[in-house]
Design brief:
The chain has 523 residues and is an alpha/beta fold. It contains 18 helices and 15 strands. The strands form five sheets. Strands 4-3-9-10 form a four-stranded parallel sheet, with helices on both faces.
């Protein structure tokens, strides 16, 4: 005989189930899909627990605005844009601070990079900063990155930096030498400061370094670094301070501005991996030196963009600007690429892996991205009202699993590469729906709505990938049709037709090229 349930048993179960259901509904997305972040400081993946949930404070080192950002910089800013978007998507209230470095970043010869550029362009350093900040914003907007909540500039925060130098001096962790102020690394280490922890540098090696640097003789120890520098007579960017007329050391701005806008300790600090040493190591020392606490709980470092196997960098010419790549104006590429294709190309790799930019890789990205944008169009055109409430259970389960997988992958240290792989699977279903391989009565209204909404929100809100703006995708579609016809003509050895298509396109400024990877075109 089966178990007999009393009225109390049943009531108990109903109340338990309803509590569970209510909890599920009321649960915030960030509770349902907790994030794990690879913390460069502990070198481990850790559960992300903000200091003041649902608020999250994130500081990212921004560009030095003495010339245009290159694509490597863009990769880093796109990576943090996706992190910012995903935190927002999960329901966090994020204060995202990304600075503008417009003072203190010196060339090898000790001149401020801004001043050097001002001299070359025969304009004021402030004009250089404004010009390249504006261009940086234009490029960021073409790449569809959201503006940060606060974008403070170093030159606008000189009093805060002077105050921080004073605090470090008051704590006995800096000394004045000939009008400049140096951070005393030896004292810091003696006071149990962890100098070298983030970058993995060995402190004894840093102390014994004998590089001949400017003003080296003023330092007590080769590892010491300037937090305030006395300006020589040629230095045009200068401010009054208690120690000299001078300017702040480059590392100081981030310590002062992150403290001002996010507090002495905040959640996430980010930047490119090349900033770990000395910039971030010195930032930590300064913050601890001034405020007695470590600045950030989680350090995120993005890996480098390479070009044809070598690090992309402004200084050695192995570089391409975003505009050059968009316009195809570089010896490194055969055609121009839409900013959304470039963004997609970045997101195909995890932020912590290096990524090698080459024409072939971009061509492949371009084809892949077109598949996704075609699916986006289908998803946007879906109207669940045309479907019933019944459908194939297996398909419904699969769609739910895809949704969960998107969250799992993004919550696993923001794995955009794996999220995109799931979106390709979903795109496959959308294409099958579109071409009739999946019939309308195989899928319920609820499932199709979940499929379309998940696909759109991960593509657009989380990854920031939109239909390319200029053509709304239509030129790509038309070109695909034309190239298809031309391909058939070539297969049938109908050279006259294939040449006619090529020549007539050339006459309207569209150049097509036949290569190993297939046929490509430049508008
Ligand atoms: P900068 O303007 O040189 O201070 O760099 C701005 C940001 O771009 C920093 O977070 C750098 O670490 C990052 N960055 C510089 N070069 C690359 C590169 N090749 N790939 C990825 N990020 C980079
Ligand atoms: Zn910084």
């Amino acid at each position: 005989m089966g178990k007999q349930y009393t009225k109390t048993d049943i009531l108990y179960h109903i109340s338990w189930i309803s509590k569970f259901i209510t909890h599920e509904i009321l649960m915030k997305k960030y509770e349902k899909y907790p994030i794990h972040i690879y913390n460069s400081l502990s070198r481990q993946k850790e559960l992300f627990t903000p200091l003041h949930t649902p608020n999250v404070g994130m500081y990212v080192c921004g560009p030095t605005v003495y010339n245009d950002v290159h694509l490597g910089n863009c990769r880093t800013f796109v990576s943090f844009d996706v992190i910012y978007r995903y935190l927002l998507h999960l329901g966090y209230k994020v204060r995202y601070v990304r600075n503008i470095t417009d003072v203190g970043h010196l060339t090898e010869s000790g001149e401020d990079k801004m001043a050097t550029r001002a001299r070359i362009e025969k304009i004021e350093p402030m004009e250089v900063a404004q010009k390249y900040t504006r261009r940086f914003h234009e490029i960021m907007s073409l790449m569809n990155t959201l503006p940060p909540s606060i974008e403070p500039s170093a030159s606008g925060h000189i009093p805060e930096q002077i105050e921080m130098v004073q605090d470090i001096l008051d704590n006995g962790l800096a000394y004045v030498a000939n009008g400049s102020v140096y951070f005393d690394t030896q004292k810091y280490v003696e006071n149990s400061g962890n100098y070298g922890e983030l970058s993995g540098r060995i402190i004894e090696e840093l102390f014994s370094e004998t590089r001949v640097l400017k003003n080296q003789d003023e330092k007590r120890n080769p590892a010491d670094f300037a937090i305030w520098m006395k300006a020589d007579e040629n230095h045009i960017m200068r401010w009054e301070s208690p120690w000299s007329v001078g300017f702040p050391g480059w590392h100081l701005e981030c310590s002062a501005m992150s403290t001002k806008y996010l507090g002495t300790t905040f959640d996430i600090h980010g930047g490119g991996a090349d900033l770990k040493f000395p910039h971030h190591e010195n930032e930590i020392a300064q913050n601890v030196g001034a405020c007695n606490v470590e600045p950030a709980n989680y350090w995120i470092h993005t890996n480098m963009l390479l070009m044809n196997g070598k690090k992309m960098s402004k200084s050695d010419g192995n570089t391409i600007t975003p505009i050059q790549l968009m316009e195809g104006d570089s010896e490194h590429v055969s055609q121009g690429y839409d900013p959304m294709t470039i963004r997609f190309f970045f997101l195909q790799a995890h932020y912590s892996s290096t990524l090698d930019l080459s024409d072939a890789a971009l061509q492949a990205a371009s084809r892949g991205f077109r598949k996704l944008t075609a699916a986006l169009k289908i998803a946007r055109s879906i109207d669940p009202a045309g479907y019933t409430h019944s459908g194939d259970q297996e398909l419904a389960d699969k769609i739910k699993e895809y949704r969960d997988q998107c969250y799992r992958e993004m919550s696993d240290d923001f794995n955009t590469a794996k999220t995109l792989a799931v979106l390709f699977e979903m795109a496959g279903i959308l294409h099958e729906l579109d071409n009739g391989q999946i019939k309308a009565n195989n899928i319920s209204a609820e499932s199709i709505e979940l499929l379309a909404n998940t696909f759109i929100s991960f593509m657009e809100d989380v990854l920031g990938l939109q239909q390319p703006e200029d053509s709304n995708g239509k030129i790509d579609d038309v070109m695909e049709i034309l190239l298809d016809i031309r391909q058939k003509a070539r297969a049938e050895k109908n050279w006259a037709l294939s040449d006619q298509i090529r020549d007539q396109l050339a006459a309207v400024g569209i150049e097509i090229k036949d290569g190993k990877e297939g046929t490509s075109y430049t508008l």
